[in-house]
Amino acid sequence: MTDRHERPGPVDRRVRVQGRPVDSYPAVPTEAQRGSVRRITVVGEEILGQPCRDVTEFGSPWLSSLIDDMFLTMYVADGAGLAANQVGVDLRLFVYDCPDDHGVRHVGHIINPVLDLTDPRSRRLVDDFEGCLSVPGAAMVVPRTDRAVARGLDKDGRPLVIEGAGYFARCLQHETDHLFGHTYLDRLSGGDRKDALREMADGREDVLARRARKAAELGR
């Protein structure tokens, strides 16, 4: 999911890492500082259209390295969330660094998530623009609920409950969709999907060039 640079609501300096409040956190996530940039898959590639496999082995250096790489890849691409199949790995895992509508920053990863859209009496459907790192250069209005809860595990197999509101709730829904083999294009009408693909065709090269420049500036 792409980052949204104009965010409503008052500025709030709080940060929540893996769902827990912390006093401060670096602008470039710690994981990204250890990672390597991976290629981001593009809509139309087979892996993006297939459900991902559950992660069954935890606590491994390989899994930690994958998460680090995903964080850096997301950062270089100016993303707010990134699923494992977007870097060519068909596992149920995503990372995020996303604000909610009150300016609270949410940073972390979640494995094998199950999404709970919360009590329908306490949520509403919101239409807002949404972009995807695998649909470079395009953004379309997509309806999403304004509250969501993701229940899953961290990289060591410990239970996680991540609650999201506003734009962060949108991020949780967007990334969970990826793990089922869906992009936001699948939620559009036929006409809007064609418009998004045209936008991608027009803007893709500029987006990819911007990512390459940012990676080069970081020496990656």
Give a summary of the structure in a few sentences.
Helices cover 28% and strands 25% of the residues.
Notes on the structure:
This protein is α+β, with helices and mostly antiparallel strands and 220 residues long. The chain has a single domain (15-213), classed as Peptide deformylase (Peptide Deformylase, Alpha-Beta Complex), CATH 3.90.45.10. 28% of the residues lie in helices and 25% in strands. The chain is built from 4 helices and 9 strands; from the N terminus they run E-E-H-H-E-E-E-E-E-E-E-H-H. It has helices at residues 30-34, 61-76, 167-179, 190-217; strands at 15-17, 20-22, 81-83, 93-99, 105-116, 125-131, 139-145, 147-153, 159-165. The strands form 2 sheets. Strands 1, 2, 3, 4, 5, 8 and 9 form a 7-stranded mixed sheet that branches. Strands 6-7 form a two-stranded antiparallel ribbon. A hairpin with a 2-residue loop joins strand 1 (15-17) and strand 2. The radius of gyration is 16 Å and the shape is globular. The two termini are 21 Å apart.
CATH class term: Alpha Beta
| Overall average pLDDT | 93
Oligomer: single chain
The CATH topology annotation reads as: Peptide Deformylase
Counting DSSP E segments of at least 2 residues, the number of strands comes to: 9
Query: For the record, what is the CATH homologous superfamily label?
Result: Peptide deformylase
Secondary structure layout plus pairing:
Blueprint: E1 15-17, E2 20-22, H1 30-34, H2 61-76, E3 81-83, E4 93-99, E5 105-116, E6 125-131, E7 139-145, E8 147-153, E9 159-165, H3 167-179, H4 190-217
Parallel strand pairs: 1-5
Antiparallel strand pairs: 1-2, 3-4, 4-5, 5-8, 6-7, 8-9
